[in-house]
Amino acid sequence: MNELITYSDLKIRWQWTCRFGTSRMKIARHWTPKPNTFPQVKPTCAFVWHRDMPHLGLAAEMPAKGLWSKLNKLNKFNRQDLFAVFKSSPLHQHKVTVGDLVQCERLHDREAGEKVVFGTVLLVGSKQFTIIGKPTVPYAKVKATIEQQTLTRDMIIFKYKRRKKQSKFLRKRHYVTMIRIDEIVVDPAADHTDPPPPKPLRLLDLWANRWLDPVEKQGIEMVEGAYGQLVPKVAELYDGSEHQPGTYHRRGLTSCYR
Questions:
Q1: Which of 1, 16, 208, 210 is most solvent-facing, going by the fewest CB within 10 Å?
Q2: 8 Å CB contact between 77 and 127
Q3: Are strands 93-97 and 83-87 parallel, antiparallel or unpaired?
Q4: Which pTM value belongs to this model?
């Protein structure tokens, strides 16, 4: 556990980075562990039936073999009654049901009417069962439709400096995306691995502030690849890989937001 530090290590770190003689100690340098936004460990979960509560022992990751398909055939539970807690970004979580209208942070390069999928689901529940993610539920996804790309209301900020006759008001608005929850998918039998993101035809498509129109892409020179398919000629210099981690995810090129 290299993320843990001892008291003696803290004393060494604070010895030359603290400012003494003030009413409170101010740490000049802040040491924090690396953020674990995208966990490398394979996610797992715990499937708990409400009839078996209180839950005291270890719970299985999936229900008993064949029981889930049997429940689907008998319609024992209504998918409209499901609720989920998912993450639309590394900082924002939402508890939703089917039909909810959710305000999330801005989804780049998206327009109203497009379908999006969120794959980081922390918890799924219904009247019969609860699925607790550790940290996420691997076989659950939330499907939604973008309703609107808009701005929030004006937030008034007042800044004031005493004894200096300085004060000013600021108005600030944030870009947000309104989404409508269409479906909460829970399918243990499905393959939950994400396919590789499609590579752009040229680097400008990835760095531009907007997607290029089909008319603009007609002038891209295409050549025959190694396997007989048509590939852009610039692929000889740039293979379409991510130049920075998370670029494809931020641009919405991946199959789902995680």
A1: 1
A2: yes
A3: antiparallel
A4: 0.71
